[in-house]
Design goal:
Number of strands: 7
Structural class: mainly beta
Radius of gyration: 11 Å
Mean pLDDT: 91
Largest sheet: 7 strands, antiparallel
Length: about 70
């Protein structure tokens, strides 16, 4: 199992349309830009650029209803 994380996201028509912030080690990190997004049977993936220039891949597991940090 991947590491679960707390994510704030923008949602209009469906949940998890676009992540806006992620909590890492108890600190909130703004997401400046979504670099890429794609859908798989496992969930919705987002490659994001953080405010500190870090890059992460987040996945929203639709069937399990939670976010994970993807290596």
């Amino acid at each position: 199992m991947l590491m679960q994380v707390n994510v704030e996201c923008h949602s209009e028509y469906t949940y998890a349309e676009r992540p806006t912030a992620v909590y890492l080690d108890g600190e909130r990190q703004e997401i400046n830009h979504v670099l890429a997004s794609w859908q798989t049977p496992e969930g919705r993936y987002f490659r994001v650029l953080l405010e500190n220039d870090g890059v992460l891949t987040l996945v929203y597991k639709t069937t399990e209803d939670h976010w994970e940090l993807h290596p």
